[in-house]
Amino acid sequence: MTSLVQIRGLRVEATTDSGRTIEIIKGVDLDIAEGEIVALIGESGSGKTTIAMTLMGYARAGCKIVGGSVALDGVDMVALPEKARAAVRGARIAYVPQSAAAAFNPAIRIMDQVIEVVRIHGVMPLEEARSKAVALFRALSLPSPDTIGDRYPHQVSGGQLQRLAAAMALIAGPKVLIFDEPTTALDVTTQVEVLRAFKSVIAAHRIAGIYVSHDLAVVAQIADRIVVLRNGEVQEAGATADILERAQHPYTRQLLAAVTPHHHARTTLAAEVTAAEALLDVHEVSVGYGPLRSDGSPAIVAVENVSLRVARGRNLGIIGESGCGKSTLARAIAGILPPFAGGVVFDGHELGRSARHRSAEQLRQLQIVFQHADTALNPAQTVEDILGRPLAFYHGMARKPRSARIDQLLDMVKLPRSLRLRRPAELSGGQKQRVNFARALAADPKLIVCDEITSALDTVVAAAIIDLLKELQRELDLAYVFISHDLSVVEAICDDIVVMYRGRKIEQITPEAMARPEHPYTKLLLSSVPKLDPAWLDDLRQDPEQVREYCQR
Questions:
Q1: What distances in angstroms separate CA 513 from CA 148, 482, 496, 517, one per listed residue?
Q2: How far apart are the two ends of the chain, measured CA to CA in Å?
Q3: Which helix (H) or strand (E) holds 22?
Q4: What is the pTM for the complete model shown?
Q5: Do residues 311 and 473 touch, judged by C-beta distance below 8 A?
Q6: d(C-alpha 496, C-alpha 508), whole Å
Q7: Is residue 228 within a helix (H) or strand (E), and if so which, with residue range?
Q8: Domains annotated on the chain, with CATH
């Protein structure tokens, strides 16, 4: 049988900032049959997205396809002139991005954006396109399918927007879809809904596609075959079940091992932390956004009456769906977003609600590391500048001792000292997050709030970051507040776990209790974590709406 997609001897080169040319895709072969989904997996920089994009005859800025062929239904996309390629994109091959929010124009209604490709290619009359869009909304299990297209992007949830991006890709009836990490930014319960919707539409339309991901458990639910990549080369390929159960290549086995991080060694069972023992004591904190009402409360309350404690040298995890208030609570603890009620006691002293009302010593002792190192690090500064600033601000270090301390910090986060003169754009995702963490360590803190710091990292790099955090904790007697939607990461590093829903703390459990949760919402969260089993999603039986109704009582 002839493959719908046939890649032969694909080679892609990239030009570095210094003008040097390096080969990033090195002679890759790949076939995809009609109705088949092939997953490309590997760590960041392995070439997954680069290969996927060549199906559209596209190479990112600074990159160039220099060899091989990429045939789509017998037509070589590499050999086609750009005008002919543009006619194929969107009509015969379409793309579902990692960030649907970035793919939509906030000023244009959803329906107009979903059917835009039909208007561009003249595939069908616009009224017919609107009817097909509504049918797709229904097939993708979107709420109010007849009217959701009248909304603007900001009026729907992240999971709904991700499914709408899939509808936009499917509207013109393409033969091939590229899924580029489409569930990476979603919490586990939303991810289940989106994966189910994708599977049902793929089966109904006999779609062929490439699914780019670093999450093997997600790939197990949707892919027929898996291709393992590293440094632009195929390490191993085979049927999904064969790769998961009988992986041959050591690198594939390393990826599989990284799916479940090593658990935190607990010397004693976690117990209730008293106020006297607490390093951090958050008491009845409420946080919100928008204009204030007459009673002094904001128009939108994002965190409501939450209390928690963290003992010295211990770790507290905070979990819950997107929008539950996790990151808002983190910002309130750090003084970035002042609460309108309640307070934060740190090391026995009440902190000012805003960071500007806290002393330099209080700011030094309580640090926060943000989710996206790309936006947290100044792109114009070198690593040396980024790490040197807190050393000068908090410790008043002169140039020579500051330089020596920067070397020590790089050693602590296991980065080569040779990186100190590079800027963030010259670092990998994992390296940037290590610099982000080293900057917090430069203050010599007692507690670090980690806000989704592994969510954008592949499993191998994320596991290495978690191991690093544990090692530094042992050496420096640090405490962590660890916010994440990756429940396996929280289970691996935390002594206690707070479960949040719609701004409220609904339960506090230990990692040991995660095997036998009692609250219905905690059960829903934990049951939504994908397993390395291709049958897991099909066998999963949940009633999320019933659980949410219970939580709102």
A1: 40, 18, 10, 6
A2: 57
A3: strand 21-32
A4: 0.81
A5: no
A6: 7
A7: strand 225-230
A8: 278-510 (3.40.50.300)
Question: Amino acid letter at 160?
Answer: Q
Of the candidates 13, 169, 189, the one whose C-alpha atom is nearest the C-alpha of residue 95 is 169
What size, in residues, is the chain?
Answer: 553
426 residue type, one letter: E
Instruction: Find where tokens 């989106």 sit.
Output: 194
Q: How many CA atoms lie within 13 A of 126 on its CB side?
A: 6
Token pair listed for 244: 């998961």
Sign of CA dihedral 270, 275, 280, 285: positive
Chain position carrying tokens 């590499």: 78
What is the rounded radius of gyration, in angstroms, for the C-alpha atoms of the chain? 25
Tokens representing 441 are 């360590």
Cβ atoms of 195 and 218 closer than 8 Å: yes
* pLDDT of the residue at 400: 93
Burial class (CB in 10 A: 0-12, 13-18, 19+), 330: buried
Residue 305 has pLDDT above 70, yes or no: yes
Report the alpha-carbon distance of residue 214 to residue 457 in Å, rounded: 8
- pLDDT tens-place string over residues 97-120: 877 877 899 999 999 999 999 988
Look up tokens 């803190």; give the residue. Answer: 445
